[in-house]
Design brief:
This protein has 15 helices and 6 strands. With 359 residues, the chain is mainly alpha-helical. The strands form 3 sheets. A two-stranded antiparallel sheet has the order 1-2. A two-stranded antiparallel ribbon has the order 3-4. A two-stranded antiparallel ribbon has the order 5-6. A hairpin with a 5-residue loop joins β5 and β6.
Length: 359
């Protein structure tokens, strides 16, 4: 009798463990594939596609974890009315969000286009990307940027755009504020203003969560975005960027130049890697060039790229330390030092090791 009771208890424990494990697996499989990745993926579901077809399409696009579990989810929830069309989805969406969007028929045009604006692109790069993917020319983009009434209307509509973007020395008023991401548009006839609106709306959504901390900062939103735009190009990891911003703030406090090469390249409208700059170019005054004269303790007049979320966070929440110098090697590993002697020593070490960057 006792033996039978023990067997029964073992069976109960086994099935209880099995049920709990299956429930955990199910919940895992209906969750988002990557909660931090909200880059748009365009998905086509055709008329007549079965639940198996749709599950296969979503799995191929890496939007769900498991086809069988997806079909089980549809069965459990009595979902049999998924619509056909083109849908904007992303990996941060869970199965519930994906199915709700498809059920609602929240579609985009069959002629829809997706455009990837890479992190760290400057306005010239954005204009080139727009011209390559739409019926707009590079000149069309700059015509819009030179429309003063249009820029004024944007300042009225977006809290983070201020009169600082209209400074006479600023090259492009929206530089830094067009959030890098993958966007979907109706077709290639999309206007430049429609593209800018979508990117500015995205920046608004991203930046608004930090508004209180930005308002409490010692720096304006324009200055923070400018610092973020430099850190975007100087470092790769968020920790490196936070340390880089920390270096800049330490130098500003001591009325030192930021001495960032990327600002000099931007000032000259030369792309990084295009060519080496001369000493004369580095030492020429420009409101962007932090290596030039009269730039002690100053932040450039405006952003030099369109920074990522990580770079923006780095500017708002920088690391506090005593470093005043940094240098990156050809593999973009960043080294931080406290004195000019330590900095020069590190530069010499990189040169001897063949890690010094040469264009």
């Amino acid at each position: 009798m006792r033996k039978l009771r023990n067997i029964a208890l073992l069976l109960v424990a086994f099935f209880a463990t099995l049920i709990i494990s299956l429930c955990l697996l199910y919940n895992y499989c209906i969750g988002s594939v990557d909660s931090k990745n909200d880059k748009t993926i365009l998905v086509e579901i055709k008329e007549g596609n079965t639940s198996s077809d749709i599950a296969h399409i979503l799995k191929e696009k890496e939007l769900i974890r498991n086809e069988i579990v997806f079909k089980i989810y549809l069965k459990i929830n009595g979902i049999n009315d998924l619509k056909a069309g083109y849908f904007e989805l992303n990996q941060s969406m869970d199965v519930k969000s994906i199915t709700e969007k498809i059920r609602k028929g929240d579609t985009v045009s069959p002629n829809a286009i997706t455009i990837l604006f890479k992190e760290g692109l400057n306005m010239r790069g954005i204009a080139k990307t727009i011209s390559e993917n739409t019926n707009n020319t590079i000149d069309n983009v700059f015509e819009v940027l030179n429309d003063k009434e249009y820029i004024d209307s944007l300042i009225e509509n977006y809290w983070f755009l201020t009169d600082e973007i209209k400074h006479p020395n600023v090259y492009y008023p929206l530089e830094g504020y067009l959030f890098p991401n993958t966007y979907t548009f109706e077709d290639k006839n999309v206007s430049v203003k429609e593209i800018f609106k979508k990117m500015l709306d995205e920046m608004d959504m991203r930046l608004s969560k930090y508004k209180t901390d930005i308002d409490n900062s010692n720096y304006s939103v324009h200055e923070l975005i400018t610092l973020a735009s430099i850190a975007e190009l100087e470092g790769i990891t968020i920790e490196d960027r936070k340390d880089i911003i920390g270096v800049f703030l330490n130098r500003i406090k001591k009325s030192m130049k930021l001495d960032s090469d990327v600002t000099t390249y931007y000032a000259l409208k030369v792309d990084m890697g295009e060519r080496d700059l001369s000493d004369k170019e580095f030492n020429t005054y420009n409101a962007y060039n932090t290596r030039g004269p009269n730039m002690n303790g100053k932040i450039p007049v405006g952003p030099v790229s369109n920074p990522s979320k990580d770079a923006i966070e780095s500017a708002i929440y920088p690391n506090s330390h005593n470093y005043e110098y940094f240098v990156a090697d050809k593999n973009r590993k960043v080294y931080f030092t406290k004195t000019i002697n330590e900095h020069d020593k590190k530069v010499n070490e990189l040169k001897k090791a063949g890690l010094w960057i040469e264009w």
